C-alpha cells in the first residue's frame, strides 16, 4: 500500500500543480479529465469524483462560466442534464496533461515493455474488465 500511496501522491501533486497553472482547482481539473472520456450526468460525475452532488454543481458551474463545459439534456432522460466538454475544455485538459512533467519524466524512464507491463498491472488491479491494449499517450 505504501507504493500506491507514494505513486498516487506524486501523480496528484503533479496534476494539481498543472491544473493550478491553468487557474483550475484539482477538482475542476479532474472533472475535465473525466469528461475527456465523454459526456456524463452530474450524479455520475459526483460518484466518480467521490464528492457530494451539491459540490459537483458548484464545480460544473465554475467550469461552465469559463466555457470549458456545457450542460445539455440527456438523450435518454429529459430530467437529466449531461455535462459535455467544450473544445476549449479539451484544449485546457490537454495542456494540463502536457504540463505533468514529473509524471512524464517518470514514465519516460521506463522502456516500452515496462510501460506496457505497468499499464497491464494497474488495469488488472483497478478494473474488473479484462486487460486491453494500452491506449496511446
Distance between the termini: 26 Å
The overall pLDDT, averaged over residues, is 88
CATH topology value: Arc Repressor Mutant, subunit A
CATH architecture: Orthogonal Bundle
State the gist of this model.
With 137 residues, the chain is mainly alpha-helical. The protein is built from seven helices and three strands; from the N terminus they run ααβααββααα.
Report on this model:
- Strands 1-3-2 form a 3-stranded antiparallel sheet.
- Mean pLDDT is 88; it is low at 130-137.
- With 137 residues, it is mainly α.
- α1 (2-21) packs across α5 and α3 packs across α4.
- It is globular.
- The chain has helices spanning 2-21, 26-35, 42-48, 53-65, 87-98, 101-108, 112-126, and strands at 40-41, 69-73, 81-85.
- 62% of the residues lie in helices and 9% in strands.
- A hairpin with a 7-residue loop joins β2 and β3.
- The protein has 7 helices and 3 strands.
- 18% of the residues are buried.
- It has a single domain (2-99), classed as Arc Repressor Mutant, subunit A, CATH 1.10.10.10.
